[in-house]
Amino acid sequence: MIVLVVGASGATGRLLVKQLLERGVHVRAVVRSPASLPDDVRLHDRLQLTEASLLDLTDARMIDLVRGCDAVASCLGHNLTWKGIFGPPRRLVRDSARRLCDAIRHTDRTNAMKFVLMCSTGVRNRDLDERISFAQKVVIAVLHVLVPPHADNEAAADYLRAKVGSQDASIQWVVVRPDTLVDEDSVSEYDVHPSPIRSAIFNAGGTSRVNVGHFMAKLITDGDLWSLWKGRMPVLYNQES
Q1: Residue among 6, 63, 13, 57 nearest 38 (CA)
Q2: Which CATH number fits domain 2-238: 3.40.1550.10, 3.10.20.30, 3.60.15.10, 3.40.50.720?
């Protein structure tokens, strides 16, 4: 199995890469700085690195990256700096998802490629009746206008949900929605739900990055789990001790 991971040098992306390698997967990763990966990952013989900013790649190079892959996983996000939040590219996650999907459609495939997008619980699945309080709606509306990364994540999820949909012959997708991300050293017990069970704004739970990487890797490599969640937007929470 070959998996392309974009955003592979981020705090969650590098954990996903490690989880995939531990499962015997061959990984292609796009990173801006290979040095940001730990040595046991960066020097692995089943890891192929491309040093680049994804949106700077030509369409032809993007097609080369996805050709022969069984899955694409995006852990892209915006750096939590003033430039990362408010500077270009304002639609990094959405535009990357769109261009990767376009590249997938330009490869000769006999079966659909899996596409896994990491998002957040603040992004609603508009195919479901995910009710939130008026106060939370107000906060999310403000975030949508004032904090570009939130709108970017919404746009990326909506692209897969509405533009790719469930009938695309080349692409099947899952949008993974962790709650507030936290750092833990090892995989722990976690729960997966079709929709949020608590307020992402006023009663947020925690989800460790290593658990997100574990779930995404399992989604990609476990056919039964993929069949359960394809075309859906599962929400992850660490189990409370």
Answers
A1: 13
A2: 3.40.50.720
